[in-house]
């Protein structure tokens, strides 16, 4: 490069170490690792017009727009990449806040030129295009919305012998706003942009200070000090020495370079860039730097003067920073690899072909069935997903069934039966049914058509005998006996009207538990947020059909039990009847019992006279007798029928229809179901959308890059 005037790098072994690492970093950069984590870089900072862009131009030999009107409005990043071919690529990296639209708009910009000469020739045009893309207001783009942009102009210089330097030119810090051009918001945006770059410990800060202003007034040094407390990576670059005329001014700058004034840990360098407003544009670097052979500059140490010296120092510094950053980069790369691999794994396998889609869903179905079996066996130690109580299906069902059984005993009768001493009476069972958990009707709106909405049950009423009397009166016919089967039927029908609602409530609870389990289990086995809703939607129709079926079966049982003529083969019915009769006679005889006692008052025996027995039986009217007969038969039958009913509702409607029967909704999501899907349905559920396949491709590339990067290190 023509700009190298001072000596070439010496073969210092310490520098070689850094160079080896620099070379590795360079390879990482070629792998685009810089996209994932920050690599060592240089940034020029300073006031507007201090000569930042000029310094970069001198360092990189890339022509930069200089001068007042074209002062930098966005960060420009110049990277160098080794490539078989020489070219310069120009692109735009969207800012962090960019909208999707703006992102696409700027990312689609790309220009390529052969060399710096061509870039120089076309730069004005290219910058106009870039400004327009970014939406920056310039004389050529008066409709632009912004003065500054967070987008980054990226200039990538490629070639077989490229340097290691990456440099960034940020807009100059300004202190006063100009009406119609710069606002307070711009001011803080630029400041934030500068800070974003200088706070990175891997950034070397080139604080650019023109010789012709007082260093003490340069805010940038204070800012750099804030973020580089130890001053390990801040370097002063003094520009425009040629503009100094007075001897005293020159002396003062020399003092700065010699470290006699406002010392900076890494010191000051003095360089002369191209001037803007004279005819020196063509003045070669070598010619420009001739001035350093004159007083007072020639007394300054060589390694502090000129672009060559600065560049050499920068390479060393970059090497040192890289050395320091190296172990951290390595750990970060590893961490990032693990994270990326996890994200990739969570995406599941690729699903482009029908087979892949089938495989994907079938694996999921297998896991679902396993979870389901464990849930039915209450084998909760098999999967830690069961730590969440919602998945403990069979336990929930058992609790609900207990509720059903107790509620049935306690309040399924319309009227309380008459208390009979010596007979356990279900209507008066002391055990209260467990309280129902709150059922939130909005939790699963898809169940609205299946679930019951009324969750209350009325307590049984008193007054059974007068109710039986009215039945007896209203349905008397001409019969020999007093109790007809029709009377019993209508008594039982009246006594069992609440069976339907209680059964519906129980079934609703069971359906809810099963549905909750299915949805939760699907969530566990399907870790793709796109597939999950499509899969559950595809299952839903069939699920609802099986819930409906279970409810229908329960209602069929209600119908059979309550609407048909009461009948049972169960011998408990007869023994119950007889037991009641016996107990009643015992009660009725009690007042007629006579006792024989010894003189001491001790009872010897009890007896009843036969004529007393007649009077007890004969004294009852026909109606009275019939009512008691109906009541007692009803009670004996109710007990047997309700036990039979509760058992069967559980067996048929819950266990068979909802849990373990062949048409159970739990068995629906199975490999067979997956295999039965036609191509279109399969793709609808399991195909990846573009986003996912794009993401997978990106992640795969990233994993590969990171692996290669770790290999390099
Ligand atoms: P920036 O705003 O900090 O990027 O400053 P520029 O690099 O655009 O420089 C501002 C003006 O100062 C331009 O006209 C440059 O040509 C001029 N300039 C920069 N460095 C020097 C120098 O060393 N000598 C002279 N004479 N002019 C310079
Ligand atoms: Mg500039």
UniProtKB/TrEMBL annotation:
This is Dynamin. The lineage of its organism: Eukaryota, Fungi, Dikarya, Ascomycota, Pezizomycotina. The keyword Glycoprotein does not apply. Residues 627-713 form the GED domain. GO terms for biological process: endocytosis; intracellular distribution of mitochondria; mitochondrial fission; peroxisome fission. PROSITE patterns: G_DYNAMIN_2 (PS51718), GED (PS51388). Keywords: GTP-binding, Nucleotide-binding. It comes from Apiosordaria backusii. Residues 36-327 form the Dynamin-type G domain. GO terms for cellular component: membrane; microtubule; mitochondrion. GO terms for molecular function: GTP binding; GTPase activity; microtubule binding.
């Amino acid at each position: 490069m023509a700009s190298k005037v001072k000596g070439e790098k010496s073969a210092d072994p310490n520098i070689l170490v850094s160079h080896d690492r620099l070379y590795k970093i360079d390879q990482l950069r070629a792998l685009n690792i810089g996209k994932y984590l920050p690599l060592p870089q240089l940034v020029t900072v300073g006031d507007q017009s201090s000569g930042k862009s000029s310094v970069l131009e001198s360092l990189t030999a890339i022509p930069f727009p200089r001068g007042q009107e074209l002062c930098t409005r966005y960060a420009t990043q110049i990277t160098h990449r080794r490539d078989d071919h020489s070219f310069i690529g120009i692109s735009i990296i969207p800012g962090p806040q960019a909208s999707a639209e703006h992102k696409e708009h700027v990312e689609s910009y790309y220009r390529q030129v052969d060399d710096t000469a061509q870039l120089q020739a076309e730069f004005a045009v290219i910058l106009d295009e870039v400004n327009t893309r970014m939406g920056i207001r310039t004389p050529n783009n008066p409709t632009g919305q912004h003065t500054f942009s967070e987008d980054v102009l990226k200039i990538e210089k490629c070639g077989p012998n490229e340097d290691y330097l990456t440099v960034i030119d940020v807009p100059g810090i300004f202190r006063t706003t100009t009406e119609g051009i710069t606002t307070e918001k711009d001011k803080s945006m630029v400041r934030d942009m500068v800070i974003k770059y200088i706070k990175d410990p891997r950034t070397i800060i080139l604080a650019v200070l023109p010789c012709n202003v007082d260093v003490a007034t340069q805010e940038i040094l204070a800012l750099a000090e804030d973020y580089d407390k130890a001053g390990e990576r801040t370097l002063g670059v003094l520009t425009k020495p040629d503009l100094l005329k007075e001897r005293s001014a020159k002396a003062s700058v020399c003092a700065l370079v010699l470290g006699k004034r406002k010392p900076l840990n890494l010191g000051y360098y003095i360089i002369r860039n191209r001037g803007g407003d004279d005819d020196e544009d063509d003045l070669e670097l070598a010619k420009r730097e001739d001035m350093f052979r004159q007083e007072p500059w020639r007394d300054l140490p060589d390694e502090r003067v000129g672009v060559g010296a600065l560049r050499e120092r920068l390479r060393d510094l970059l090497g040192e920073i890289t050395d320091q950053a190296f172990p951290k980069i390595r750990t970060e790369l590893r961490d990032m690899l693990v994270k990326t691999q996890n994200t990739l794994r969570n995406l599941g396998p690729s699903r482009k072909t029908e087979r892949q889609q089938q495989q994907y869903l079938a694996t999921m179905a297998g896991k679902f069935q396993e979870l389901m079996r464990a849930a039915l066996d209450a084998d909760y130690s098999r999967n830690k997903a069961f730590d969440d109580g919602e998945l403990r299906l069979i336990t929930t069902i058992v609790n609900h069934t207990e509720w059903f059984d107790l509620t049935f005993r306690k309040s399924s009768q319309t009227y309380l039966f008459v208390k009979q001493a010596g007979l356990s009476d279900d209507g008066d069972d002391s055990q209260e049914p467990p309280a129902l958990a709150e059922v939130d009707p909005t939790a699963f709106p898809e169940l609205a058509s299946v679930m019951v909405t009324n969750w209350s049950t009325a307590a049984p009423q008193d007054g059974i005998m007068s109710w039986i009397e009215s039945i007896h009166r209203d349905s008397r016919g001409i019969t020999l006996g007093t109790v007809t089967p029709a009377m019993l039927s209508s008594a039982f029908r009246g006594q069992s009207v609440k069976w339907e609602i209680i059964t519906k409530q129980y079934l609703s609870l069971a359906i809810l538990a099963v549905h909750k389990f299915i949805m939760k289990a699907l969530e566990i086995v399907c870790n793709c947020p796109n597939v999950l809703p499509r899969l559950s939607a595809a299952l839903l129709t069939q699920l609802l059909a099986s819930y409906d079926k279970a409810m229908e079966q329960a209602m069929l049982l209600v119908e059979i039990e309550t609407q048909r003529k009461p009948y049972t083969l169960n011998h408990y019915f007869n023994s119950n009847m007889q037991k009641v009769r016996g107990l009643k006679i015992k009660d009725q005889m009690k007042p007629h019992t006579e006792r024989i006692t010894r003189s001491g008052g001790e009872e010897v025996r009890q007896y009843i006279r036969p004529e007393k027995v007649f009077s007890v039986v004969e004294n009852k009217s026909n109606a009275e007798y019939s009512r008691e007969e109906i009541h007692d038969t009803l009670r004996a039958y109710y007990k047997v029928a309700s036990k039979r009913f509760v058992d069967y509702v559980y067996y048929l409607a819950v266990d068979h229809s909802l849990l373990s029967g062949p048409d159970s909704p739990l068995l629906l999501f199975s490999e067979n179901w997956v295999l039965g899907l036609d191509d279109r349905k399969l793709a609808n559920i399991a195909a990846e959308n573009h986003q996912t396949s794009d993401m997978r491709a990106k992640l795969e590339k990233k994993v590969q890059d990171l692996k290669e990067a770790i290999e390099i290190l």
